[in-house]
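job 3f2a | input accepted
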Amino acid sequence: MTILVTGATGNIGRKVVDHLLAAGADDVRALSNRPERAGLPSGVEVVRGFLGRVETLPAAFEGVDRMYLAPYLPTVEEVVDLARRAGVGHIVDLSGDAHWVPIARAVEKSGVDYTHLSAGEFADNSVMWAEQIREGQVREAYPEAANAPVAMDDIARVAAAVLTQDGHAGATYTLTGPDTITRAERIRELGRALGREIPVATVSEAEAVAVLAPAMGEEFARWYVEGLAASIDDPQRPTTTIADLTGRPATTFAEWAAANVDQFR
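job 3f2a | predicted structure (265 res):
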């Protein structure tokens, strides 16, 4: 069974490749814009292509049974239609909140068997605070906003499980971390990992957007900050989906912080 991983050198796609190999998959194909720089494990077939250039995809899709679809909005309808015509039998997509809903819709519209992985905020997004932590203080509009941040590695672990097992067609899996915690609590956990307290200053929405805009872009930063307000009174609740599908609990934020602390030094 040939499994194609798109975005195979991205933050999640690269981990999907690793988890597929760990699960015993022996025919993994990886889509990379620059195969010569991919640095993927031996035994993985690396093919040149990019979801944003649909004309590069036919060869990559040939003979593929199942595919992990990375979240790329601009060409998603063309990509999934091409996958259907190439005979891809099952698409596992990363969709999630409102921003990524068009991906799930396009996949369903294609008529190909699908599994949606609906993830909330990534624990890895906490790297947005790295510069502020190094400067000595984090500025937050809504430090009491809460969710259940999920580790990218856990998402990849689920994707690999779904791609290598039967019985997941038509399912939508909501993926979260194991605990609902506030943003202030996340910053405290990062402080524990660093061995020092990290002060948090409550600022206006406008200032919080200005802090994040250089990395996110102003429009996305505004959408992100405004969305935090709703999670104060209606925080995201954790699911057990990751443990249910993989047999291993989801990564706690404290575990993620300890494993990634060097990014904040």
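job 3f2a | The chain has eleven helices and eleven strands.
job 3f2a | closed
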